[in-house]
Amino acid sequence: MSEFENTLFVIVLYKRKIEDSQTYNSLVAEARKEDCTLNAYIHDNSPEPQNINSNESLNILVYDHDSSNSGVSRAYNNAAKYAKSNKIDWIVIFDQDTTLPPGALVEYKKSLDNSTAEDKIFAPILKDGDKVVSPCRYILHRGFHLNNVPSETVRLKDISFLNSGLVVNAEFLIHVGGFDEELFYYSDHDFFYRIPKFLDKVTLIDICLEHSLSSGVNEKSAATINRLKMLKLASARMSKKYGSLFPLMWFYFRCAKLVVLNRDISYLV
User: Fold this and answer.
1) Confidence (pLDDT) at 72
2) What CATH number does domain 7-211 carry, 3.90.1030.10, 3.90.550.10, 3.30.450.20, 3.40.50.720?
3) Is the pLDDT of residue 230 over 80?
């Protein structure tokens, strides 16, 4: 298989060595199997930088360390700007917790090789355990599981996707304003809520990626309470941005449910 010369693979890390990232390890394994070298952009939101070197499978073009932990939105936006300035058309965006199955790169390549001028986004199916989490139904600023996942093309009306695994045309991402960098959470849903006026469909890639959701808040800890506070800020941002009470309503419903389940009012942040 020929190399992805016109594609930039983006991985965002947080408090994890790159060799411990499921995304990195599965991506390298696939590249080795297909005997190709991928161009990569690594954004590291960890407090301390780490030494990351290229290898025969991953050519690290950029290592961007951001100790302020600005989230994934800035990382993806900066990667798109880098790609455009270096005449790279496509970026493939990942977090650190996504596992690519055997044959994933073949399917990514097949989608890109068959792309037309109208294609701006390709998306895999994401599963967390046995549940499909992307694509999902997105109504009243809340995601719901789809009963039936489309097989090829997804119309964007009331549909959203999670970020990880997406293939996005870099110029298109910049044109539509990129991901909202003020949203630490929900930037993917915000993005797909905004873009139907620019794009009416997303083409599915014929693969299913294993993806660990990062916003789980069921176990009591200081990290859980802090995550709830960040979710509250993101919900308030979405409510203000779209003049809707639903994002905050869903957040407080979630908090109330945790209070009842755990009999602990500290979940009301």
Assistant:
1) 96
2) 3.90.550.10
3) yes
Q: What is the pLDDT of residue 266?
A: 83
Q: Would you kindly state where each structural domain of the chain is located, as residue ranges?
A: 7-211, 222-267
| Range in 24-33, 80-89, 142-151 with the lowest mean pLDDT | 142-151
Alpha-helical segments (H) within 72-215: 72-85, 104-113, 170-175, 187-194
226 pLDDT exceeds 80?
A: yes
Is pLDDT at 2 greater than 60 in this prediction?
Answer: no
Task: Give the closest residue to 191 by CA, choosing from 241, 243, 119.
Answer: 241
Give residue 261's pLDDT band: very low, low, confident or very high (50, 70, 90). confident
CA distances (Å), origin 238, targets 42, 59, 189, 242, 267:
28, 37, 10, 6, 21
E-strand spans in the chain? 7-13, 38-44, 58-65, 90-94, 98-99, 121-128, 131-134, 136-139, 142-144, 153-155, 159-160, 166-169, 201-211
The CA dihedral of 83, 85, 87, 89, to the nearest 10 degrees, is: 40
Query: Of the candidates 8, 38, 10, which has an alpha carbon nearest to the alpha carbon of residue 23?
Result: 10
CA proximity to 108, closest of 37, 206, 5, 203: 206
